[in-house]
Each structure stands twice: as C-alpha cells, then as structure tokens.
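Problem: given the chain below (595 residues), write out its structure.
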Amino acid sequence: MVFQSFQMRVLLWGGALLLAAMGVVFYYSTAIVGSELLAETEDRSWGQLNTVRWLVEDHGPFESEKAFDEWVDQLASRQGIRITYIVDGRVVADSEVDFDRLSELEDHSTRPEVLTAMADGRGMHRRQSATLHKDMIYVAWRMEATSSLPDGVLRVAAPFSLVRDRLGDLRRNFLWIMLITVGVACGLAALLSRVMSRSITEFSNVARQIGEGKYDKRIRVVPGGEFAPLAHSVNAMAKKIGRHIRTIEDQKGQLRAMFDGMNEGVMTLDADGRLESYNAALDGMIAMPATARGRTPIEVTRRYEVQNLVDSLLKNEGEDVNSVIIDLMDNRVVEVGAVPYTDHNGGRKIILVFHDITVMKRAEKGLKDFVANASHQLRTPLTSIKGYAETLLDSPPKDFEGARYFLEIILKNANHMTGVISSMLALAKSEQVGKAFRRVQVSGREALEQAVITVTPLASEKDVSIAVEIEDSDLSVMGDEEGLLHIFHNLIQNAVKYSPKGGEIRIYGSERDDKVRFCVEDQGPGISAEHSEKIFDRFYRVDENTIDGEGGSGLGLAICRRIVKNFGGEIWHDGYGRDGSGARFCFSLKAASLD
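Solution.
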C-alpha cells in the first residue's frame, strides 16, 4: 500500500503538522492584524472627526444650510470621508447626498452613534449604511451651537469595506506565502524522506537477507543515529545466529552421517505415529516404498508387532523403552527397539531401531547344533569304549587273542574321538582369521604332491589309483602351506574313502582369469543336489548314523571351507565326475603373481 510506506507517512505527517502550524499562525496573525486595522481605522476616523469639528468651529458663519452643505461636500471629497450634520434627527448636511434630497432622509435621531453622542458627548458604531448600502464606521460628536449652526451632532463615516479589503488582501498574501512555504517544505521533506527511505530500504533488505539465512550479511548503512543500536543488535544477532547455525549444521551433518552410516535400520515417527524419516540401512533391510513418509509402521513393515509396539508407547507415556523380535521375508531375524522422546513442542515422538540379529541367532543355533553334534559324535564311541572296558573287567577273556579283539575296538573308538577333537581344534584354529593363517606365497604344485604322497598308502589298501593332471606352472597361490596341505589332504582322503575298490581319483589344476583352480574327482556314490550345500556345514554327514567304518566326524569339509575363505577363495561341490558318477569338489584361490 502507498500510504503504508515510510516515505509517504513522513510526507503526510510532516505536511499535516506544517499545515496545522501554518493554520494556527494564519488564524492568529489575521485576527491580530484585523483587530489592529479596525483599531487603526477607528482612530483615524476619530482624528478625522476632530479635524472636521475644529474646521467647523473655526469657520466663519455660513450664509445658509445649503452653503454649509456645499462646504461639507468639498471637505469630505478632500478627506475621502462622509460628513453628516444632524440637528434633532434631521440631516442638515451630508456629503454623500444632494442638498435637495436631504429632506427625503429619514430621522437620524435613533442612530446608535447619535444617541451615544447626545448622551455621552461622542459615540461610535459599525453597520451597513441604509443610504449607501456599504459597511461603515460611524463616529459622532455633539456640537454646541455656533454663530451659523444650531446644536447638533457632527458625524464622520468611513467605509468599513476598505478594512475588509485590506484584511482580505492580507489573508490572500499570507495564504500564498503559506502555500509556497508548505510546498517548499513538502519538497524538502520528500527529498529527505527519499534519502531516509533509501537508507531504511537498504537497512530492511539486509535484515531480510539475514532473516532468509544469509548470516554473513551486515547492516552498514544506518538511516539515523536512532537506528544505530538496532543495527548493532541485528549485526550481533546475525553473527551469533550464524555461529549457532554452523554448529547446528555440523551436528546435523554428523548425525546424518551417523544415521546413514549405521548398520542398524532407523525409523523416526511423529506424534501421530506416522513415519518422518528413515536411513539407508532400513531401506536395504525392508525395501521401503517411495511413498513411505507419512504412513504408519504397519503399512511400511507389514508387521503388526511393530505397530502394536508403537501404539503401546503412544498411549502409555510411562513406558520408555521396549522391543519386539520379528522374522523378515528373507529369513532374517530383526529386533525392533523403540525409544520415545519429546520434541520442542512437547509432542511425544518415537525412534525405532532395527537390529539385524540373524547372525547372532544363527550363531546361537550353530552353537546348540555344535554341542549336540559334538555330544553325539563323542557319546557313541565313548559308550562303546566304556562297554568293552566293563566287559574286559567283568568277564575277561581267558586268552590274549580274545582280549585283543576288545582292545582293538576300544582303540578304534578312541582314535575316532581323537579325530573328532582334532577336527574341532582345527576348525577353531581356522576361524581365527588374523592369527591362524598368515597369507604368503605357496606353491600349489608342491602342496598337492605332498598330500598325494601322504594319502597314497591309504589308496593302495583299497587298490585306488590317483591321477594328477596339472599345468606345468608352479600354480602359486596366496595362503598358508599347512592350511593348503590340509585342504588337499582332506579332499583326497574323502575321495579315497568313498571310491570303490579298484577305482580311480583324478586331480586337476589350472590357472585361469587370475585364479588358480583345483578339482578332486572320485568314482564313489556321489552326492545328490539335496546335500550339495549342506555338506560344508559342521558335523553334517549324508549318513548321520555312521560313526565309524568309512564315516567321519563331519567336520572335514567345514574346515576346508573355513580355510579357503581365510585365503579369500571359494570352494564348492561341482556335481558328478566326467563319466557321470562319483563326486567332484573344486576350490579356487587368488594367484600369487597378482599380489
């Protein structure tokens, strides 16, 4: 709005005050001047009356009333006044009326100035003349009889309109002076207000920019000394706010980095229990929809347990922390913790933290399975050892050969227990990634040849041949000599165990695509797809009831997988052999030439 601008208000208020002041001056000055003009006119009329009275008294006798009238006419024309002589109400002479018409004039004895003069010796009155139709000032003096004139009243009349004309001229001149003064003052005020308005506009623009977040701006142009404290306060406030904003932004950046860098999923809910924000970890955990914000937890997680937890915390302000455990679609287990807090408006909001405890649950399950399987693996041979030992004590054989049979069974079960315990220790050692295996350059050819030599006696007992087909290169890999030898030994020994009598084991080695790959292939019964992945689990065996004989502890392949992973490689069951029978196990490691 135009009238709301600072410049226009300064102009309007300044003009109004100036007009009011000039109006007061105009009123009082014209009133005083008018009074002075009126008093001056009255004094001049009295002076003229005294002059006429003196001339009348000093004049000699008049021949007649007509001669007196003519003398009055001449004197009045020279003085510029009206002279009248009244005797007992009759006008004897009048400078404004012909002598022949004097008899037509009405009785003047009732005129106020005549009455006052007759009573007090002189009188004055202001009114409009009935004869001349003009505003006049009448002054009258009672005259004593002279040699040619009887007692009467001498009256002088001066036009009052002259006073009004002079007063009007004065007012018009003063009005022009006032208008010119107001115009000049308004021009100067407009110029001054424009300068001030420009300064105030710049002042307000800087303040607005500070309000918009540009806290480096400072007010340097001050419209006036009165604005200096305000400018200083605004600059100090901007500096302080800028410092606080930088601190808040740094903290916000830190919180955002923590928020996005957390492995746990985080979801924040408003006072109505609707989603405000979430981090990338939660999106990867639950696959949040694009329109997740503003929705309830059950809509985005599709789990009623989370919604019930949120509703419970929103209704019961006494509860501060609570949690539930849910199972996701991908078989992951997540613990959802809820923590309420109060925002700056006093609203109760909630933060949900999603902890992926799948590994912990699997570890717990693995530990339980490990203990159960270890107990099963050790209980059976231990029972056999105890039974045969009690038999030897209660009913000892009469000859040594009978006792030898029992002792061999005890020894065989003891060896099996030793193998189980050794395998368990080897597995525990293999899981100490940073300590158990120090990765160095190892010759794959030499480790394979040494493993073949070690297993050859066992293969000879079953009339099983071992054929090695590897490249001429050294096939060096990054790993540990003992660990690599353990892998070869376990795979070849398993192949010997499950190969038929007179069977053949083939071993292949090659380097392709920066990887060194080894495969061990036998002609045994093979492994179905159902067991293909599970055979690398701890204590897992295709025939769970086999404890001795050709069976093992079920830890060999689990140890091999752990060692291969420690070397940064992969191991897998590659199905059947080349002739469609048996089993084929392969593993690959990074070639040593790349490190």
